[in-house]
């Protein structure tokens, strides 16, 4: 990105002053190296989002920002329904409610090493992964609608997990306002055999080791210690979410002119929040959030069963589950006034600070766990939300390392078998149904996650709590 187009506010905050039809400035949180490495498409998309009706305060980009569909991945924007604010399917993305769930095991590396290979094989065979992967659970029409309305609560009622899990899931496991009737039959059909599956792309199930603790106060509350083994699940709403995004993007593009919405990019298709299309999209999107929460809950149940077979002394308790592709109604201070806004986070993680009433009492003293997925060859991180973040970016932080090259470029540079072999030599076991998928997700295809996390920490979007390194990775 051309730095001459930006005004540097601090070492980790850069502004794009409004020009043309921008209603608000653009704000990018990153260090100079990350900014320089960002494609100019990020600049273009941040400024395009700033032209949308009803946008409040700024169009934001997180340190892992890269080109996306309409909105940049790593983009955050909030809209006020009282001044013509819009909801955008592109501002949520196709993988609605893709997110990360982290489980503590009560185990150490010494417990894992003797059965590491066995556990890798068992997890790979227990949790389906890959393009078009299906599970053993088939949902008929009634079960599908109940799942879309109930989320993780539905899954637990069906025997997939524990009621105590709900306390540490965003929205307590169920997104209010879901409307299964707004989800098309085609979307439901795509999902009927996909519950309890990872899917493909950057989704994974990973057994990790806590290698560094940075904030002992938060780590103590999170019950994380150096040497601990944890399990991370990264996936979303599978085919259902993708179908909802595809269908509503088309509808929004068709109806935009009728609402006098001028789109600088067709991919920015949106609709007034209070319009018929806007309300139907919100109902369908919330149903997809519940689908993702139920999906991660079922996978958790499968992981627990696998550990019980091989490491029966393990106790897999849920630290937190948080999504990073959503639009949610949240209350934020605007000019000193509490205002209900529709906050879009696309490839950005909610990062509420200490004391926020939406957090469970057990976590409220130190802030929300912010779960940052890295690559299968580097590291992931646990952060904690800050009070500063609430005013900096509507309580948001980065969500991962962020791609530095396309999947096509990655497959031209790496071969999946070689990646698996190289990581095995480092003690990281990869299991995947597709060597091409492994090549697409090669660690070198991503930015350096530690740089991204350090930038988020230094910008005060969230503070570093712990660094996790992979030991076993089931990759879609």
In short:
This protein has 476 residues and is α+β, with helices and mostly antiparallel strands.
Tell me the radius of gyration: 21 Å
Amino-to-carboxy terminus distance: 32 Å
Question: Strand share of the residues?
Answer: 25-35%
Mind telling me which CATH architecture this is? Alpha-Beta Complex
Structure characterization notes:
- With 476 residues, the protein is an alpha+beta fold.
- The chain has a single domain, classed as tRNA-splicing ligase RtcB (Alpha-Beta Complex).
- Helix content is 33%, strand content 26%.
- It has helices spanning 32-37, 40-49, 109-112, 116-126, 141-157, 185-191, 216-222, 238-255, 276-310, 387-393, 407-413, 416-425, 435-440, 449-458; strands at residues 7-10, 13-16, 26-29, 55-66, 73-79, 86-88, 99-108, 204-213, 228-235, 270-272, 317-323, 325-334, 337-346, 349-350, 369-372, 380-385, 396-397, 429-431, 462-475.
- Strands 7, 8, 9, 11, 15, 16, 18 and 19 form an 8-stranded mixed beta sheet that branches.
- Helix 4 packs antiparallel against helix 9 and helix 6 (185-191) runs antiparallel to helix 8.
- The protein is globular and about 60 Å long.
Offer a few descriptive terms.
globular; alpha+beta; tRNA-splicing ligase RtcB; single chain; 14 helices
